[in-house]
Amino acid sequence: MEQKENNYKNNEMDLINESQINKSEKKDDKKTLSPKVDYIFQKLFGEVGSENITIDLLETILEKNIKEIDLSENIVLRREMENDKLGVLDVLAKIEGNEYCNIELQMAEKSNIIERILYYWSRVFIRNIKKGEDYPELKKTIAVLIANFKIDELEEEKYHTKWMIIEEKDRKKILTDYLEIHIIMLNKAREIRKEDKEIDKLLKWLEFLENPEGERVKEYMKEEKAIKEAKEKLDEMSKDPKIRRIAELREKVEIDLIMEITNLSKAEIEKL
Questions:
Q1: Which pLDDT score is estimated for 248?
Q2: Which residues contact 96 (CB under 8 A, 6 or more apart)?
Q3: What is the 3-state secondary structure (H, E, C) of 73-137?
Q4: 253 pLDDT exceeds 90?
């Protein structure tokens, strides 16, 4: 990882001005924070101590058993472009010591999203080999994008798709499993839940992300231990004034950015 990125580790002050954190603000003090705010998403799933809930989420997305993950390599903030208004907060998990998985929750619709996710994947892939090391040191890298908007290129696809490099003609041979990309579209998942179809475990997790205080989530907590643990951690985070203030300011910037890109009103965005 580049030195510039390392400078952000354990430095939450870089997210917002310190004086902004300390402002007294009583509004919505009891409201549960939204897991869809990138800062909250990363603290919920990317902090050391969150291994149980993150393993469960990843097992559900990747459809495989995971014994252990390492969350210690997460950074607080990274900026992909010099003119980024928000920076990127995501979750990086090292799975069983031999593969990486990067999870990003993207609220604001951005152009060239497919190219962006390939770029994010490549950044993680190349960082696990050091100068002078041989190519066998490279590790399988998985990118997971959770998108809160419609992706035109995937309009005909299911809400959760998995992509790999496959031989085109016979479509049987996978060139390598070192590249794996999962794209999850919240708008499509929302439609499935509205239709009251059979709800799979991933849909339960997505319901938690979108509506952690909902009646459905309360029911899921009775049968899904990891979702219950995630909700309890979210409740504790929601009581912390500093976390609340950072989350509020991150959310405000996100909303302003979405308004700029989509021309939607704040009220329309909050319904997403």
A1: 83
A2: 66, 67, 68, 69
A3: CCCCCECCCCCCCCCECCEEEEECCCEEEEEEEECCCCCCHHHHHHHHHHHHHHHCCCCCCCHHH
A4: no
Most confident of 42-56, 63-77, 86-100: 42-56
Pairing of strands 174-185, 140-147: parallel
Task: Write the CB contacts of 160 (distance below 8 Å, at least 6 apart in sequence).
Answer: 61, 182, 183, 184, 185, 189, 202
Token reading at 190: 């929302």
**Do 242 and 94 form a contact (C-beta atoms < 8 A)?**
no
CA distance 161 to 96: 23
Tokens 């490099």, located at residue = 165
How far apart are the C-alpha atoms of 99 and 107, rounded to whole Å? Answer: 26
Sheet architecture: strand order including 174-185: 69-70, 91-95, 99-106, 140-147, 174-185, 160-166
Instruction: Let me know: does 231 contact 217? Beta carbons within 8 Å.
Output: yes
Confidence of residue 246 (pLDDT cuts 50, 70, 90): confident
217 — pLDDT class (breaks 50, 70, 90): very high
Give residue-wise pLDDT tens across range 57-73.
999 999 999 999 999 98
Q: Exposure string (b/e) for 224-249, b if CB count within 10 Å is 16 or more?
A: bebbbebbebbeebbeeeebbbbbbb
Quick check: 149 and 109 in contact, CB under 8 A? Answer: yes
Q: Is 165 helix (H, G, I), strand (E, B) or coil?
A: strand
Burial 88-121 (b: 16+ CB within 10 A, else e): bbbbbbbbeeebbbbbbbbbbbeeebeebbeebb
The three-state secondary structure class of 194 is helix
Sign of CA dihedral 129, 135, 140, 143: positive
Q: How far apart are CA 120 and CA 166, in angstroms?
A: 20
Radius of gyration of the chain (CA): 19
